[in-house]
Amino acid sequence: MAVRHRLVKASPQTVWDVLADGDRYAEWVVGTSSTHEMTGEWPHVDAKIAYEIRVGPVTLSNETIVRRCREPDVLELEARAGALGTARIAFELRPWGSHCLLILDEHPLQGVGGLLHNAGVEVVTQIRHRAMLRRLAKMCEADARGEASDGARWRPAAARSHAEGGADA
């Protein structure tokens, strides 16, 4: 079972806001090349996000489903990876002074992924989690400073949509 944690120098609410923004999913999930919401309202229970993973010339289409949501501190997801099966990915957000202790717990649920789970897979998962938590922390800390993760000034999704002539305009 792969469990990692990271102290994020942002409030738990800021971290929750990033996790709860389905449009930003591909920015912090390692290996995801693009996403789009399929059904429901992310991050409510049973909402789904479809995404693509590119491995060299191969593109795989997968989906993630919200299985448990207790705003603002628990988000549990089920990632479906086709023939590889499914995995439970749980985030717990704990206040840590003015910051957030983010705990990530992932393990296989069904399918080949669970059958092949071993120490080698665990090492790869831990490396992936380090990268994912680093990306997520960078985004949250930039949001807390009022910046985009690339250093530009950040605007909330609703403001971006309105300014760009989106559906909310």
Structure description:
With 169 residues, the protein is an alpha+beta fold. 30% of the residues lie in helices and 39% in strands. The chain is built from 5 helices and 7 strands; from the N terminus they run E-H-H-E-E-E-E-E-E-H-H-H. A 7-stranded antiparallel β-sheet has the order 1-7-6-5-4-3-2. Strand 6 and strand 7 form a beta hairpin. The radius of gyration is 16 Å and the shape is globular. The chain starts with a strand and ends in a 6-residue tail after the last helix. The C terminus is likely disordered.
Tally of DSSP helical segments:
5
Q: Rg, please? A: 16 Å
The sequence of SSEs as H and E is EHHEEEEEEHHH
Percent in strands: 35-45%
Keyword list:
169 residues; seven-stranded antiparallel beta sheet; disordered C terminus; globular; alpha+beta; 39% strand; single chain
Outline of this structure?
The chain is 30% helix and 39% strand.
Layout of secondary structure:
Elements: E1 2-8, H1 12-19, H2 25-28, E2 32-39, E3 48-55, E4 58-70, E5 74-80, E6 86-96, E7 99-110, H3 112-115, H4 119-145, H5 157-163
Antiparallel strand pairs: 1-7, 2-3, 3-4, 4-5, 5-6, 6-7
